[in-house]
Amino acid sequence: MIGAGSWGTALAMVLARHGREVRLLARDASRAGAMQQARCNQDYLPGIDFPASLRVTDSADDALHQTAAVVVATPCSAAESVLPAVAAGCNGPVIAAFKGLDPISFERSDELLLRHVGKERAAILSGPSFAQEVAHGLPTAITMAASSEELARCAGAFFDDTAFRIYSSDDMAGVALGGALKNVIAIAAGVAAGLKLGHNAEAALVTRGLAELMRLAEAAGARRETLMGLSGLGDLVLTCTGELSRNRRLGIALAEGLDPGAAQERIGQVAEGVRTAAAVHAMATALQVDVPLMEAVHLVLQQKLDAADAAQQLMTRPERSEF
Fold first, then answer.
1. Which residues are catalytic?
2. pLDDT (tens digit per residue) in 229-240
3. pLDDT grade, residue 323 (50/70/90)?
4. Which of the listed CATH numbers 1.10.1060.10, 1.10.1040.10, 3.40.190.80, 3.60.9.10 matches domain 177-315?
5. Which end of the chain has fewer surrounding CB within 10 Å, N or C?
6. pTM of this structure
């Protein structure tokens, strides 16, 4: 497991629950030592004990030695730097558990993985899954996508935990885009909550956000039905409504008047929607797809539009047919 944040740690715990040897790679020796000694991740998942077969290390060579599979759960922006070593150090499946879009190239998480690993070994894991609940062993359903259903099922078989149910897919583009784009809409949901616009507004925002997500994802090659599944609608609902959502909390902070930098400092973890919003702006422009809600989020993050003004502008747009 590459990446010892909350998500990487939670997934490592799932993998280790039934005795499988799992090595969790932390970013430095002091953090790895502290986690190994405490037998938990005090920074992100305090009080949730590691399974006995989970070991923390700061050595990439140690982590990758004779591995059957590798899961990469770093922030999307950091994945580029670790994937070459992962591709060279493991002959089995490499599973991307990170979400995002490159703001310049529009490269998705699955495309980044495929470029380094190849379609014979690449898989992507995404869906409605708060790390804290996964670490506690609460029921979770999620999607594993690969170039074939067979490879997706092979990669999913490593997560043999009855509380962690995996559905397979061969639509890597759809699963990747659903996981990335929902973060931008979740920032908008947080803004609506922070401005106290009410439940009606939040329900409308999630619904219209799904419409934008589907339009843009389809234009980029995803299948419509994938966006209605766990990695699309499921993840969107969770991230827009759940109090554990980083992107929602970031939106609340923006609504309270914090600038984007201060808002990120407050939540203390990477909110992938910030980087993705810039990519959505450029991608939607290039593909000529109308995404007013996500565009408003981009403008707020660029400090070109106040959060309250953004909400007002969205409500005063010309009326149109829903479909």
1. 182
2. 999 999 999 999
3. confident
4. 1.10.1040.10
5. C
6. 0.94
